[in-house]
Amino acid sequence: MVEQAPAAPAAPPAPGAHKSLKEGGTVVPVREVLWGNDAGVRKFETAEEIPPEMRDLIMRLLVVQADTEFASIQQHRPWLDSAPTLEDRWIQARIVADEARHGLQACRILRDFGAEGQSRIDGLLRTQEGHHKLDAFNIPFDSWADVGAFTCLVDRVGVYQLRAFQECAYGPLARAMPLMLSEEQLHLNFGYNVLRRMVREGPAYCGNREEAQAAVDKWYPRSLDMFGHSHSRTSEMAIAWGIKRWTNEEARNRFIAEINPLLEGIGLNAPDPEWHRRIL
């Protein structure tokens, strides 16, 4: 039976929001923009309604989101027949199916942007292994510990990115979040349990604590880099437009506050947040 990691604390809305987000990753459906320059007005429901600058920003964010989903499939694929237990293989197959659906969901939203959106979809489908936008998704899994650390750490970053879109100003994107977040929780619990079992059961399961720690050391700094630059103009614009509710630095700090105690609770050490970082 898969043991669940302790649930992440629900994030409050950004300053200026006047509706509440429910605890536990779900939201109160609302029709008006909750934060940013357009707080209080009706959400944008079609691509044609969106101002040009905001339109380009949404498409860029969707491309990155879809690219990470498709890249993750490529990383997991070689391990579908190599996982140590039948349950692991089954869960990993579910994860791959989820990633494919999430990538498709992002592409469906991109399709609403007409020829420009379709052009970006075509580019996504042509992207080969090793040429994805974020460094963490260009690195193959060399061990089962890599699979566990990646899904525990990197997929958790993905959850924070999705939660930043919760009840955003673009209705179609906001409505896609609840199901995606629900499915992503499986990924986090899977990765957490792989690392936990490696530490507690060792070779009786697969690997040992040292291998698990080495994988955490490998993926932890890359996870923090995924949030982007701390003082990002794009991040500030996304908040102003009501698309994301946290800055990169705020989201990264929330991630650290959640993941460090989880790692310590299973006998692993979280590296210093600035260790081996490339993007600060």
Automatic annotation (TrEMBL):
Against InterPro entries, the record matches this protein to:
Aromatic_CoA_ox/epox, Ferritin-like, Ferritin-like_SF, PaaA_PaaC
Gene Ontology cellular-component terms listed:
cytosol
Q: List every stretch annotated Disordered.
A: 1-23
Give one Pfam family: PaaA_PaaC
Q: Name one GO biological process term.
A: phenylacetate catabolic process
Q: Which Gene3D superfamilies match?
A: 1.20.1260.10
Q: Which PANTHER family does the annotation name?
A: 1,2-PHENYLACETYL-COA EPOXIDASE, SUBUNIT C (PTHR30458:SF0), PHENYLACETIC ACID DEGRADATION PROTEIN PAA (PTHR30458)
> What's the protein name?
Phenylacetate-CoA oxygenase subunit PaaA
Organism, as annotated: mine drainage metagenome
